[in-house]
Specification:
The structure is a single chain. This protein starts with a helix and ends with a helix. 38% of the residues are buried. The protein is 83% helix and 0% strand. It has a domain of 83 residues: Alpha Horseshoe (Serine Threonine Protein Phosphatase 5, Tetratricopeptide repeat). The chain is built from 14 helices and no strands.
Length: 274
């Protein structure tokens, strides 16, 4: 079902819950609306929905309010992370990590450790970031969670680049691309191709970089608006730097799609990582 239709259905259910004074139902629908808006990258609206949900549950004195507040805090931490509010995000994720370890939820523990590693990286705490990301990668490898492995390898490559270890970064990205190509997840492929494109651009392989971002644009119909907007902005900036004409930009996009359809993306990645 398309997002607008899902949103409309939730809105109708929300109105029905309010009309019937069903506070628990109202809080649950508000939470689901928060999840939906977060997945679409609508951060302001998502935050409002989560906070509304928490306020309704807290007003009820519901027995599960503590768990629900923790889940809402985790989601708000995700929004903080996307907005670059790392000092606000960190304690939310640290509290969630304590809960997941107490519950012996290994998958969620690995996920949060990885997120904390990304926060460390963003705050230039590279030593701590490497330890956390490596720990999370080890757990996700054990759990055979290939999607998270790709994302963690991408983060590890960013740490390597920040510390001047471009060779190690290339190896991490190459491993991530291989896994992503095997699992064929549009979002994950887009994410890792984007990282390789940025790496290639930094190393002066500019034509290859914009072709890789062109491949990312081919996934526009399969990813959320926040991802589409970020890729479009990056592609536009590269095109402007290269002083490409409008027709040249169209040629790049066409060539990118042909490279991907003809399964030649691996060749581009290999050239990008040289």
């Amino acid at each position: 079902m398309e997002v607008p239709r899902v949103r409309e259905k939730y809105q109708q259910t929300l109105e029905l819950c309010r009309a019937n004074n069903d506070k628990i139902g109202e809080a649950r629908v508000l939470f689901q609306l928060g999840v939906l808006e977060l997945e679409e990258g609508n951060l302001v609206e998502s935050r409002c929905r989560f906070e509304e949900s928490g306020n309704v549950f807290n007003g009820l004195g519901h027995p599960s309010s503590d768990q629900i507040n923790a889940e809402i805090s985790y989601r708000l931490g995700t929004i903080d992370l996307w907005e670059g509010k790392y000092s606000e995000a960190r304690p939310r994720f640290e509290q969630w990590l304590i809960r997941m370890r107490a519950a012996q939820n290994l998958s969620s523990e690995a996920s949060v450790v990885g997120i904390l590693g990304k926060i460390d990286y963003a705050e230039k705490r590279y030593g701590s970031a490497r330890v956390r990301v490596s720990e999370a990668l080890s757990i996700q490898t054990h759990l055979r969670n290939d999607i998270e492995r790709v994302r963690l390898l991408s983060t590890l490559s960013s740490i390597d680049v920040a510390e001047g270890h471009d060779g190690d970064a290339a190896k991490s990205l190459a491993a991530g691309v291989k896994i992503a190509r095997d699992i064929r997840s549009p979002l994950v492929e887009m994410e890792i191709f984007e990282e390789v494109a940025l790496f290639a651009w930094k190393r002066g392989h500019r034509r290859i970089a914009i072709l890789l971002l062109g491949i990312c644009k081919s996934f526009e119909g399969d990813v959320g608006s926040a991802n589409r907007d970020r890729i479009a902005k990056g592609f536009s900036q590269m095109a402007q730097t290269l002083q490409l004409s409008e027709s040249s930009v169209e040629d790049v996009i066409l060539q990118s799609r042909q490279e991907y359809r003809n399964d030649r993306a691996a060749r581009l990645v290999e050239q990008a990582l040289q």
